[in-house]
C-alpha cells in the first residue's frame, strides 16, 4: 500500500527540482549581474509556489540591447542599369588633359573620347589629341564640321577633295579606331551645314556625304556615324531625319543627339524614344552620339532615370557619349555633387 508521507516527499523534491530548473533558465538569459541573489531566489520560489501556472518563467527573448547588436538585414539592391557590353564616352574638352580630368572625376576611363574638328585651315587630323587614345585602345570620335557658307556645294564640286584625302590618309596612318561623324544635327537650323539653311538641302547633304565616304573606302579603321538631331527644326516633311539618310552602304553606325534644356523639362524617353524607333529600321548599330542634361535640382534623378532607360535598350544602343561642357547650359556631370554621384553610379 502506498505510503502517503513518502509520496509527498517525492512530489516536494520534484517541485523543487522543476523550480530550480526554471530559475536557472531565467537567470541564464539575464544581463543583470546583481540579479541572482538569495532574496530574489526566495521571492521567485514563493511566487511560483503560489501560482505554478504563471508564464512569468517562460524562457525570455534576448534582451533588447542584444537584439540591437544583431546585424541589420542588407537593403535591397537598386535596379541594375549597367552592362559591360555598352561603349561609353564623353566630350570633355579640346585637350587631352580635359579628358584626363574628366576620368579622374568620374572614376573610370572612357571607351570613347569625342573631339570637334573644323574643315580647312586648322582642321587637320588631331594627332596630338589622339596619340594617347590609341595607346589606351580608346575609340576617337570626331565630329567633323564644315563651318563655312554653302558647304555642300563646295564639297560636291570637289573644292575640298585634297583636304579630305589628306585627312583620310592621316586617319589611316593613325591606325587607332575612329568614328567619324560629319555634319551632325543636320536636320536642325543652327549650323552652316543645316539642311534648310541657305543653299543647303537634304539631297545635297546626301551627295556630299557619299562623296566623302567614297574617299575613305580604303581606310578600315574609320567607321562613319550618322547623327541627326532627335527632332527636326523646322519640323517640316522635307526636313525629317529619314530625308538625310545617305544609304546603307555609306553608313556604319546610326545615332542621334539630344539634350534636356530644362524648358520644358524633358525625360530621356521624351527626348529619344521616337528617334530610336526610327533609327531601328536601318538595322545598324545605334549610338547616342551626344546627350546631356541642364543643371538643376532634378538633374541627378534625370541621370539615374536616363541610364535605366538606356538599359532597356541594351540590345539596341551600342554606345553613348556625354557632352560635358558648360555651354548653353551647364551640361557637366559635376554641375552639382548629387549629379556626379548619380553619373558615377550609372557607369558600366
From TrEMBL:
Segments passing through the bilayer: 6-24
GO molecular-function term, one example from the UniProt record: mannan endo-1,4-beta-mannosidase activity
Ranges where the GH26 domain occurs: 69-343
PROSITE patterns registered for this protein in UniProt: GH26
Compositionally biased residues, Polar residues: 56-70
Entry superkingdom: Bacteria
InterPro entries in alphabetical order: GH, GH26_dom, Glyco_hydro_26
Spans annotated as Disordered: 56-80
GO biological process: substituted mannan metabolic process
Keywords from the named record: Glycosidase, Hydrolase, Membrane, Transmembrane, Transmembrane helix
Assigned protein family: Belongs to the glycosyl hydrolase 26 family.
Name of the protein in its database record: GH26 domain-containing protein
Organism name: Candidatus Portnoybacteria bacterium RBG_13_41_18
